[in-house]
Amino acid sequence: MSTQSPAAAATQREPFGIDAMSRVQRRFVVALALVAYPVFVAAWLGLPAIGIEVIPWAVVVAVLGLGTVLSGFLVYAYRRRLAQSPDGDLDERQVAVRDRAYLESYRVFVAVVLVGLLVVGIGSDVVDRPLLVDFDVVQPVLWAGILYGMLLPSAVVAWGEPDLDEA
Amino acid sequence: MVRRPTERSEPVVHNRIALLRTERGLSRQDLADALGVNYQTIGYLERGEYNPSLLLALQLAEYFGLPVEALFSRVPFTPLSTLLAGR
Predict the structure, then answer these.
(1) Is residue A8's pLDDT more than 60?
(2) HEC assignment per residue over A114-128
(3) Are B18 and B46 in contact (CB under 8 A)?
(4) Coil, helix or strand at residue B72
(5) What DSSP state is assigned to residue A135?
(6) Which among A92, A143, B44, B86 has the fewest CB atoms less than 10 Å away?
């Protein structure tokens, strides 16, 4: 009979960190990772604009930014070997899980981009103002593309996998 | 992550993997090591939440030394207690 594949062995190491969390805890971290960045950008751009000077907004932004990075890293780390391994390193079910994660990620990503474009398109029509695209607008969108492009496959796996004792 | 066969509208394939594994005193890890898969995959197979490929089904049959139809069936297997009672 065949010997164990490298990733079958690699994914059987003693779980720690997010790997050891229950599904509920994991989903909380995933939600935090996905929500933290837009909140961070909103705080970065919005707080000074609305004149909130009493609260040291830089601290709020720093905390949110740290939350984005930490939760993003946790989710990225979760089953990264599964979400990013080549076929030869995974067994057939893991390959199916990984492929499904990429498919779901693509669907979510495309849906978000389309909805975003729709909102911006309709919004600019409604307010009857030309769409101003400068670096301040493009930069957070670019970072969002990079962040979510890297994060979504792991996030989909982390969201859907059962508790370890169920598996 | 892998959707249950029923959620995918795929036919459920019933199996006797858990019975045979227990009968032979094997842990899921032992069986997984022998087949070169992750131990969680054995759990998914036993619960019928993942239908194996033909290759893996044949590997399982070979490992247990049984014909593949003794391990897998499209209809539920007769419970062991019923077989023992001769009914």
Answers:
(1) no
(2) HHHHHHHHHHHHHCC
(3) yes
(4) strand
(5) H
(6) B86
Which of A93, A100, A163, A165 is the best substitution to test chain B (most B C-beta atoms within 10 A)?
A93
DSSP for A28-94, written as a single string:
HHHHHHHHHHHHHHHHHHHHHHTT--SS-HHHHHHHHHHHHHHHHHHHHHTTHHHHH--GGGS-HHH
ipTM > 0.85 (yes/no) = no
Nearest C-alpha in A relative to B2: A97
Alpha-carbon distance A148 to A71, whole Å? Answer: 12
**Residue A115 CB partners (closer than 8 Å, separation 6+):** none
pLDDT tier at A123, thresholds 50, 70, 90: confident
In contact, A6 and A89? CB cutoff 8 Å = yes
**Residues B42, B46, B49, B55, CA torsion sign:** positive
What pLDDT is recorded for position B1?
A: 52
Q: Is A13 on the interface with B (CB under 8 A)?
A: no
Q: What is the pTM of this model?
A: 0.68
Could you give the maximum distance between any two Cα atoms of chain B, in Å?
A: 40
CA B7 to chain CA centroid, nearest Å:
19
d(CA A11, CA B39): 9
Provide, as residue numbers in chain B, all residues whose Cβ is less than 8 Å from the Cβ of A104: none
- Asked whether B49 and B83 are in contact (CB, 8 A), the reply is no
